[in-house]
Amino acid sequence: MSTKVDRAVHANQLIRAIASHGRRFFYNARADRYARIELDVAGRVWFIDDYRESRIYTHRRGSWNRMGFSHGGTLHSLVDDMREYIVHGTRIPRWKIAIRQLGNRSENIWGYSPEAAEAVRAAAYALPIMEPEKDGA
């Protein structure tokens, strides 16, 4: 099993993968700054917002999005999943990356083009933070 520090590196790799494709969530072009995850000396997980550069304590369930997080609920949930991976080793389900829309599986709720969605999925799925592909899937 990897350490919390290793898993924080994996989370930051996922953030960079997302920030490098499509609408480039977690990247602030004006400041040329990426969001990132940090651990404090006690092993608690902090999210550093790319837009506001806020240092956000992620262990405050449900309320930390109002404390400087500049992205929406889907990405808030994904950061929660990253925290759980870092703290407990719980891998993130593959469906959470560029989530496909019900009724039209070629579209996604992130608003990425089909090509960008596939590129970000491929980059994310190569990381150890993601659940492995299920047999027959």
Describe the structure.
It is a single chain. The chain has 137 residues and is of the alpha+beta class. It is 32% helix and 16% strand. The protein has three helices and seven strands, in the order H-E-E-E-E-E-H-E-E-H. It has a three-stranded antiparallel sheet with strand order 3-4-5. Strands 1-2 form a two-stranded antiparallel sheet. Strands 6-7 form a two-stranded antiparallel ribbon. A hairpin with a 6-residue loop joins strand 4 (45-48) and strand 5 (55-57). Helix 1 packs antiparallel against helix 2. It is globular.
Summarize the structure.
This protein has 137 residues and is of the alpha+beta class. The protein contains 3 helices and 7 strands; from the N terminus they run H-E-E-E-E-E-H-E-E-H.
List the helices and strands and how they pair.
Elements (H helix, E strand, L loop, with lengths): L3 H16 L7 E2 L4 E2 L1 E4 L5 E4 L6 E3 L15 H16 L11 E2 L2 E5 L5 H12 L12
Antiparallel strand pairs: 1-2, 3-4, 4-5, 6-7
Helix pairs in contact: 1-2
